[in-house]
Amino acid sequence: MAADMGPEDGASRNELDALLKVSTALTSSLELGDVLQTAIDGAVDVLALQTGAIYLIEKDELLLGATTPSLPPDFPAEYRRALLDDHPHIQRCLQSDEAVFIRDFQLEDLTPAERGVCEARGLKTVFYVPLTNDRGPIGVFIVGTTAGTRDFAPRDENLCRTLSHQVSLAITNARLYESVRAANTQLEEAQSRLLKNNETLARVNEELKKAKEVRDKFLALMSHELRTPLTVINSYVTFILDRGFGNPSTELRDILSVLKEQGKNQLGLIEDLMNLARLESGQFRLHREPCQPGELVGSVIKAFRPVRETKDMEVILDLAPDLPTVYWDQQKMIQVFQNLVGNALKFTPAGGRVTVSVRSKVDFIEFRVSDNGIGIPRKNVDQIFDRFFQVDSSPTRQHGGSGLGLSFVREIILAHNGKVFVESEEGEGSTFLVLVPPGEMQPA
Questions:
Q1: Whole-angstrom Cα Rg for the chain
Q2: Burial of 366 (0-12, 13-18, 19+ CB in 10 A)
Q3: Average pLDDT of 12-20?
Q4: Same domain for 219 and 294
């Protein structure tokens, strides 16, 4: 036979049932708006009150989150969003983390803002219940009576504390869910942008591939259709000048000399572009073989003899006596010194001097190519090895060229695990320093 249950036990059972109902309702949704509305409806029901509202804290302000019953259309806007400083009773309940009870707001010393909220909602008795989590206050719910006043019983304090914990936990979970959802949204947007970027990149790569094919065809055209006839023309012009074929007049010889020089320049430009194509297509390979650094540089200087004599320039070759055999790509290293010595001769006025020195150091061979020519402006020194860069890029520039020579020098030296530097002052000449390890012979 079941024991009789007294009135207090029945009330406790009803309160527990009501709290369980609120707790269950709070876990049924993670949407913040739904959680706030469920929370205030449940608080009013459990405490047997008539009206209530939940305010969330955002910095120093109170933001209205949910009310029961619904607000009238004429509810003042200043009570939907208010300064926390204007509500000292809320501040007190947040600081103490305890419910603050006002039996009759008409008899209480309230601020204009507090009194205005009570009047707008028709409150008589008011409960201020704090909402906090492990990081501090997150809000407050304000509940009360409208039909008359009532006392604050011990059971009310316990119910407020339990409700505060449940509601605070539900709000924290809802906010966490909102953060995760916002992060997921951002991630989806980022993935969408990445997908679009990848599609754009794929299109660009396809266009670059087509452009490369066009460029390769163009370079092949230059190689076979332009370089070959230019070589033939230069050969015949040289033959006429050297043999005096047809006994050309002095004026005609001058014209032929200009043609020969311009043809040589054009062949140089075509060769530069072909070298660039090889470099970018991955056909740039080293073929190491034994060679003597002094002989290599000496052959380059010897090839420039006509230029030296024409400009009446002095070229000094300073070789150390103990130069070892090295293992380099001889043809590519010849190209390096053709560029360096050729530039020194080109940018040094007639009657000037170029000095090429070769020394053997502990781990590398050191080359210095120095001149007393026009030099490089300080602002351009760091750009001198960039592709297509020319100090004077104006249409009326005095010195021609593609602006690729020094970039090839750098790439070839880097491929040999070496380094190249330049020191220069405008009007004082330039010195190019090349450091290249001796290298090793590659196995067959």
A1: 45
A2: middle
A3: 67
A4: no
Q: What is the pLDDT of residues 19-30, one digit of tens each?
A: 777 777 777 778
Amino acid sitting at position 2: A
Looking at residue 424, its amino acid is S
φ/ψ of 81, rounded to 5, equals -140, 115
Identify the domain containing residue 241 by its residue range.
196-280
Check pLDDT > 90 for residue 355.
yes
For residues 252 and 261, which has the higher predicted lDDT (pLDDT)? 252
Contact indicator for 297, 335 with CB cutoff of 8 Å: no
Question: Do 64 and 202 reside in the same domain of the chain?
Answer: no
Distance CA 344, CA 306 (A): 15
Q: In this predicted model, what pLDDT tens digit does every residue of 113-124 receive, in sequence order? A: 999 888 888 889
- pLDDT tens for residues 160-201? 888 888 888 888 888 888 888 899 999 999 999 999 999 999
69 with 138, same domain: the answer is yes
Q: Between the CA of residue 331 and those of 24, 274, 410, what are the distances in Å? A: 85, 15, 15
Helix (H) / strand (E) element for 358: namely strand 353-360
Q: Is a pLDDT exceeding 60 seen at residue 363?
A: yes
Residues in the chain, overall count? 444
Q: What is the pTM of this model?
A: 0.47
Give how many domains the chain has, as a whole number. 3
Q: Which two tokens stand for residue 39?
A: 């929370």
Asked whether residue 178 falls in the same domain as residue 226, the answer is no
Same domain, 424 and 325: yes
Picking from 117, 151, 183, the residue at the C-terminal end of a domain is: 183
Q: Which of 172, 177, 97 is nearest to 133 (CA)?
A: 172
- Residue 291 in 3-state DSSP? strand
